[in-house]
Amino acid sequence: MGLLSYLKSTILSKWVMAITGCILVLFICGHAVGNLQILLGSDTYNTYAAFLQGLGEILWIIRIGLFVCLVLHLITSIRLKLLNNSARPTAYQYKSFLKAKLTSRTMIWTGIMIFAFLTYHLLHFTAGVTNPVEYDQHEVVINGKSGIAQEIPNDPRILAQLPPTLQTTTVDGKLYAVQEEVKTAETRHDVYKMVVLGFRNPITSLVYIIGVILLGFHLSHAIQSMFQTAGFNHPKYTPWIIQGSNALAVIVVLCLISIPITILTGLVGGTI
Amino acid sequence: MKITLMVWRQKCCKEQGKIEKFVVDNVEEDMSFLEMFDILNERLILEGKDPIAFDHDCREGICGACSMTINGVPHGHEHGTTTCQLHMRKFKDGDTIYVEPFRNKAFPVIKDLVVDRTAYERIMQAGGFVSVATGNAKDANNLPISKENADLAMDAAACIGCGACASSCPNGSAMLFVSAKVGQFALLPQGQPERKRRVLAMIKQMEKDGFGGCTNMYECEAACPKNVSVRFIAKMNRDYLRASLFTKSK
Ligand code: HEM
Ligand code: FES
Known about the structure:
The complex is a heterodimer. Chain A is 62% helix and 9% strand. Chain A contains 10 helices and 6 strands. Chain A has a 3-stranded antiparallel beta sheet with strand order 2-1-6, covered by helices on one side. In chain A, strand 1 (138-142) and strand 2 form a beta hairpin. By secondary structure, chain B is α+β, with helices and mostly antiparallel strands. Chain B has 2 domains: 3-111, Roll (Ubiquitin-like (UB roll)); 118-249, Alpha-helical ferredoxin (Fumarate Reductase Iron-sulfur Protein, Chain B, domain 2, Orthogonal Bundle). Chain B has helices spanning 33-46, 118-127, 147-157, 164-168, 175-186, 195-208, 219-223, 231-246, and strands spanning 3-9, 18-24, 69-70, 73-74, 96-100, 109-111, 114-115. In chain B, strands 2-1-5-3-4 form a 5-stranded mixed beta sheet. In chain B, strands 6-7 form a two-stranded antiparallel ribbon. Classes of the chains: A mainly alpha, B alpha+beta. Chains A and B meet through helix 1, helix 3 and helix 9 of A and helix 7 and helix 8 of B. Bound molecules: protoporphyrin IX containing FE and FE2/S2 (inorganic) cluster.
């Protein structure tokens, strides 16, 4: 077993849940803020996306780290759940809870649904497997600026009629007309357009909204629980940690669901 | 008062049990929950039936023997109260009350509402003590202990080991009990030499007995008749990690 021998101890398992969970929480906060930039328009958003892609090996280190956290979190939670179920073979006939909330009692179920959602999310936007046509969007960036080049057909009759102020350039085998002198020309993944087209589908948006709300339920218990697991419980601060945990969960949910909602209502990407 | 009781009956450990209905007419408000069972049992004996077996001893909330799950909560919904100290004035005339044994894999039913709680004793035997003989009482100020720590240790020591924590926990976890027993020593100088060994041994025994793990739902704290706080669980989580990382012998 080696590395996984911590699973034999429930407390060490809890520590692994808390540490991996904490890393995932930090990621999700960054992910929410990063993607909220879609509200600032196509150029900002695609520049951010290109920056992430440009991280190269660092991006892969982050991805692998997150994946390891997720897998450890998942394995540990299932092992704990099986153990906890076996500790009460005969259920009470009359069920009643004083302090255990719906969110804390359903961690494993919200967790597993988040996992399913996450798998879909990665196939959808990261791998482009579920909607390959919407995924395959590119834009031309001239002199570091997007949206200033216009694609024109490579037809000598049209080219002859072009005003002399226009420059033409070929990127990836396609011809573009630009108003200024072309110093650099490149294409990049048009993540903005991909996301907008993706969320125009109300069913896709609904899946995301539900997935994110489930994440919110998970987080509202998870964040405060993390502190308790890590041994931080103080009468002065714990009430604030519980409030903060709920507040942070709501903020993350609002940030993330604002993206499909603004796209569905046409506030974002309405011109595409 | 007229109370309808839905009581778990089970002849012995191996047999299947079931809920049986009893109507008790002459319940008075000043009776304790156990006294209601006394009059019901007297009637059952007169009728030549098998009285309901239940655990009790001090009947003043200090021994932890009484163990009934009342409407789904060990010792009932009344906060910080043992079953023996729960009075019928907390119920209304005509109420139907479900009474079941403490339920846990580690607490097998012996008969009716009586369960075997030696699992908690095994946990105590694994490390819930100080092994050095401390001799006679010393001069009070020989061993300075801060008021805060003395009070906290006292709060932990309020645990009467009744089993309500593990029986209320949806995971069947005994963490509140173990953390109180570990915590009372961890806060005092006498507990320091064996601190790491103690927490490792007691948790190991807890897991061996088939108790579940804590997922911070805090049901235990709400059910505890002595109001032991989940703060002790947080403290123990730290102690346990430190002990696992920095103990040489296994
Ligand atoms: C693979 C899908 C997931 C599953 C199956 C899952 C399951 C669980 C379960 C069952 C718990 C409770 C464990 C316990 O209290 O002992 C938990 C706690 C937690 N989860 Fe998840 N979860 C998943 C994804 C996530 C994600 C994506 C995040 C963060 C964004 C997250 C953050 C946390 C945190 C911070 C905790 C608190 C740990 C603690 O109680 O100390 N989880 N998870
Ligand atoms: S009988 Fe002793 S605590 Fe209830």
